[in-house]
Amino acid sequence: MNKIIKSGAAALMLSGLMSAPFSLQAAIPGISGTSFNLEAKANFISTPDGGVSYMWMYGVVGQPVPQYPGPTLILQEGPAGNDTVITVTLTNNLSGEPGEMPISFTAPGLNVYCTDCPDGPAGSVAPGATQTYQFIIKRPGTYTYYSDYRTDLGVAMGLTGAIVIRPDGFAHIDNPNAPVPMSGATQKAYPSNQTVYDHEYLVFATDLDADYHQIVRGTGEQDWETCLNLGQTSCASQEEKIVALTEALRNITQTTPGGRFIEGFFPEYWFINGRAAFDNFQGNNLPWLPTQPYSGISQTHPGQTSLVRYVAGGRQVHPFHPHGDESAIVAVDGRIAHASNTNAVTNPGGAAPNLQWREYTIDQIPGQTVDVTWNWMPKGMGFDVYGNAAADYASVVCTPGEPDDVFQPFVDDPLCIVDAADRGVPLPTSQPPLSDLAFGGFWSGSPFLGKFGTLPPGEGGLNANGGLAMIWHSHREKELINKDVFPGGYLSIMMVEPFEDPDGNTVTIPRGSCFDSNNGSGC
Predict the structure, then answer these.
(1) 281: closest CA among 520, 446, 442?
(2) Which InterPro entries did the record assign (predicted)?
(3) At what angle do helices 210-217 and 238-250 cross, to 10 degrees?
(4) What is the pLDDT of residue 242?
(5) How far apart are CA 348 and CA 350, in angstroms?
(6) Could you report the per-residue pLDDT of 285-300, keeping only the tens digit for each?
(7) Which residues have C-beta within 8 Å of that of residue 263, sequence separation ≥ 6?
(8) Contact 158/56 with Cβ under 8 angstroms?
C-alpha cells in the first residue's frame, strides 16, 4: 500500500498538481548585484479562481514581462569602512496606459535619493522617462521598496517589492545534508551567530481590490477619465487626470458589474509572494504564471532553523499565524531586537538578538518588515511522532539532553528528536474509520512523521515523503478566500519533512543561492 500511495503521489505531481515536491523556496529567489535596471510596466496577474487583474509592476529591463511583487533585490553588505553604493535605474513604461502617471523608487530606512530627477532628490520618473536612484548600504536586514509618488495608488496597483541585505562575510552553506554550525557560521541574517539559519523564506503580503483596478484601467462603472464625477468638464493636464483618478478611488461609491456596492478600498484577494492560495503552493517560475514567479510554500526538517522574512507590502494589517511553534523575533525594519530589552529594537552593532521576544502571530503592518526564526521539534507530544515501538530505540545513541538545543540534524540519529519519555509511546487516540474522515491532499494516511497509511482512491497524493503540514495563514478569516470563495487567499504551509523517507533514502531540502540574472530561473 505504501508503494501504491507513493506512486500515486508521483503521478499527481507529474500531472501538474504540484510542480516540485516541496523543493520550492529553499532560498529566497531574486536578483543580486550593485546595479539594477528596472522598469514599471502594465500587465496582468492571474488568480486561482480563473480571474485576471490589471496591474502596474516593476520588472527587469529586457525581461518579457514585469512581476508581482517586483524582483527581490538581494544585496551584500561591504566590509566595515567600505560603503557599498547601490544604483537603481528606473524607466517609467506606463506611458500610454489609461492611468499613466509619474512613479518613483523608495526604500524606507535606506535613504534612497534620485541623482537626476527634475523635481529633486526625492523626485519621480515621468511617463516615458528614465531616472537613477542610489543608496548606500549601512547594515544588513530586510526592507521593502515601492513607488511613493501617490503611494496609495502606486502600491495598490502593484508597484512594490522586497530588499534583502546580507551581512559582510555572508555565504550560503551548499551541503544540504550538513547542519549550519553556530561557530564561524557564514549563513546568517545579521552579524550575530544567534541569527544562523538552515533555510530562508520570504512571506510578502499584499492585497487587491479587483474593482479598484478596473476603475484605474477605465473599465469600471465610474469613468474617472471624464472627471465628471468631480464636477469638472475636462482633464486637460496629466496632473488633473491623476487628481481625478485618486479622488475617484478614494470616494468609490458604486455598484460593480457583479452587483457589489463599494465604499472605499475593499480587497477581495490576498497574496503571499504575489500568489493567492492555492497557486502559492506551487514552484517558482511557472510558465502559466509569468508575472508571478515566486512560490509561497516552505519546508524544513525537525530541529532545523528557518529564517522567515515577513514584508507587508499592501494596504491592510495582516495577523499572520504560522502553526507548529512560536516565532523568535530577530529584527524589525532591519533593526535587530535588543539583547537586553524585550520588544525593543536598535541598530545591529554586533549585538545578539533577544530571542526571548517570541510571538505566535506576526502582525504584518503595511510598510514594516519583521525577521524571525522558526523551528519545529516534537517536544512534549505525549506520543512517539514517528509511530515507533520502544524496541526501535535499542541501538539509537543520543547525546544527553536531546531533543533540546544540543540536537544536530543530519549528525545525530533522527530518532533522537523524540523526547526520551515519548519514545515508543503510541498515539493516545484511535483513528476513526475512513468513512468518517475528510481528506486533504497533504494527508499521508498516517498521523506519524515519515509514514503512510491507507487512503481511498483519489485522495492525498501531495505528500511524497510523509511530512507533517503546518498551516500558515492569516487570522483574519475573510482573508482566506478568493473573491468570496473559501478556501484560498492568504494561506500557505510549512512542510516538516522527515530526515529519511520510508525507504530509508535521505530527504534533501536544497540550500544555497537561488538567484541569478534571470529572476531566479536557476533555482
Answers:
(1) 442
(2) Cu-oxidase-like_N, Cupredoxin
(3) 160
(4) 65
(5) 5
(6) 999 999 999 999 899 9
(7) 252, 253
(8) yes
